[in-house]
Specification:
Chain B: This is Sulfurtransferase. The complex is a heterodimer of chains A (93) and B (130). Chain A is α/β, with parallel strands linked by helices and 93 residues long. Helices cover 27% and strands 24% of the residues of chain A. Classes of the chains: A alpha/beta (93), B alpha/beta (130).
Chain lengths: 93, 130
């Protein structure tokens, strides 16, 4: 039982998401949430172990945000696959 | 697998309708089924027929309409959210004696119960927040 967390804004939406993330969950950053990768707050560093973080490619490119390991760059086809793989999906906005 | 999508943001001030359309296209391309699209809050502006964005920008209401019609999808617009924002069909325009109506053909005004119904019908329910 794992959950896909979709975050579309930095700061508060991300903070609320992190409070709910459990080990093994996936966090997907879309839209303005990709700015979390540039944030000095480093909220993504406090995720529990076993969590993976995915970043929407076109949203990162549109904002000039560079994505590097361990973050996975994904497209919409992979987004759909993540929804199929996880049995619950939560949006934070 | 059955998907239901909710869109909470308007084309002019949110990326939600754009992201949801990218996602919906990928869902269909992978052979999954979309059992309900629900446009709520500012998302109801996606269903207007009289918004005219500049020609060098994407016309999301038009793109959504083409996608919905091509795939014969069930697209519901929250009636309470739509009426307060001036998105009305012919029946509502008549009921409230309004000077015009602007709901695109492929959309249907209905209640919030259709959001719950969509979530219950689908294996996966995804919200695109404003």
């Amino acid at each position: 039982m794992s959950t896909l967390h979709i975050v579309n804004k930095p700061r508060q939406a991300m903070e609320l998401c992190i409070r709910a993330v459990a080990s093994g969950d996936t966090v997907l950053l879309i839209e303005d949430a990709v700015y979390e990768l540039m944030s000095s707050a480093q909220r993504l560093n406090v995720l529990p172990g076993g969590c993976s973080v995915c970043v929407m490619d076109m949203d990162a490119k549109a904002r000039g945000v560079e994505v590097s390991a361990p973050f996975e760059v994904i497209d919409y086809n992979r987004f759909v696959s993540l929804c199929v793989d996880d049995d619950k999906i939560l949006s934070w906005f | 697998m059955k998907f239901a999508l909710a869109v909470y943001g308007a084309p002019a001030n949110s990326q939600a309708p754009q992201s949801a359309l990218h996602f919906a296209r990928a869902v269909v391309a992978q052979g999954h089924e979309i059992v309900r699209l629900f446009f709520y809050q500012d998302g109801v502006n996606t269903a207007t027929a009289i918004a005219q964005p500049p020609q060098d920008e994407s016309n999301l209401p038009s793109e959504w309409q083409a996608f919905i019609q091509e795939n014969q999808l069930d697209a519901v617009v929250c009636i309470a959210a739509a009426l307060r924002r001036g998105v009305v069909d012919q029946a509502e325009a008549g009921r409230y004696n309004l000077p015009g109506h602007n709901l695109r053909d492929c959309f249907e005004l209905s209640g919030l119960g259709q959001l719950l119904d969509g979530a219950l019908m689908a294996d996966r329910f995804i919200t695109f927040g404003a």
